[in-house]
């Protein structure tokens, strides 16, 4: 494998199916553009005469739309910005913190990353969408699933405050797991 000599940008993007690494090579003398997602080459273009522009591709199991914008800043300096679903990476991450909950835990020596998509109530674990069973309980709902041989559920209860909305808590083997900050 050739050395990535023209590597100009690396981003880490948290999606429901995991954290993805996006790398971008831009040869400003050759016009080469290469996009890698999780180490796998997604786009390769040689001899591009236009050095500015946009490369679009998808990331992750849900084929999330992504784009790298290449802009000239001054002379031969370039700026590279990553967009996820048409939003800047920063906006994407801010939006994600409102639409998902993420928990990171270790069970029997294996690390798990559990993500709840609040709008669909889909539950992901280490890149796989899980089979879940929803159930109404006295003070809210419980979404049941298993991770390995552990029984888990996400409890959703109203905070009683309009601004806070619903509070989601992950319970694994009757133990509450603290939410992770990504």
TrEMBL record:
Gene name per UniProt: Faim
Cell compartments where the protein resides: Cytoplasm
The protein's name: Fas apoptotic inhibitory molecule 1
Single GO biological process annotation from the record: negative regulation of extrinsic apoptotic signaling pathway via death domain receptors
Keywords attached to this entry: Apoptosis, Cytoplasm
Pfam family membership, one: FAIM1
Coiled coil: none
Record's keyword annotation contains Nucleus: no
Biological role stated in the UniProt entry: Plays a role as an inducible effector molecule that mediates Fas resistance produced by surface Ig engagement in B cells.
Family classification: Belongs to the FAIM1 family.
Major subcellular location class: cytoplasm
Domain of life: Eukaryota
Family matches, as PANTHER family: FAS APOPTOTIC INHIBITORY MOLECULE 1, FAS APOPTOTIC INHIBITORY MOLECULE FAIM
A cellular component term, taken from the record's GO annotations: cytoplasm
């Amino acid at each position: 494998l050739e050395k990535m000599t023209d590597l100009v940008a690396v981003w880490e993007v948290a999606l429901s199916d995991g954290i993805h690494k996006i790398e971008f090579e831009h040869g400003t003398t050759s016009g080469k553009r290469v996009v890698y997602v999780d180490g796998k080459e997604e786009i390769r273009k040689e001899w591009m005469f236009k050095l500015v522009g946009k490369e679009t591709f998808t990331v992750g199991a849900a084929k999330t739309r992504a784009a790298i914008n290449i802009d000239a800043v001054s002379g031969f300096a370039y700026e590279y910005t990553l967009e996820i679903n048409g939003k800047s990476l920063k906006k994407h991450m801010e939006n994600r913190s409102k639409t998902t909950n993420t928990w990171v835990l270790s069970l029997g020596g294996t690390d798990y990353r559990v993500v709840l998509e609040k709008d669909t109530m889909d539950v992901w674990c280490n890149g796989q969408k899980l089979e879940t069973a929803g159930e109404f309980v006295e003070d809210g709902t419980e979404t049941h699933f298993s991770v390995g041989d552990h029984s888990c559920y996400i409890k959703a209860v109203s905070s009683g405050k309009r601004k806070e909305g619903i509070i989601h808590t992950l319970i694994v083997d009757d133990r509450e797991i603290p939410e992770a900050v990504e």
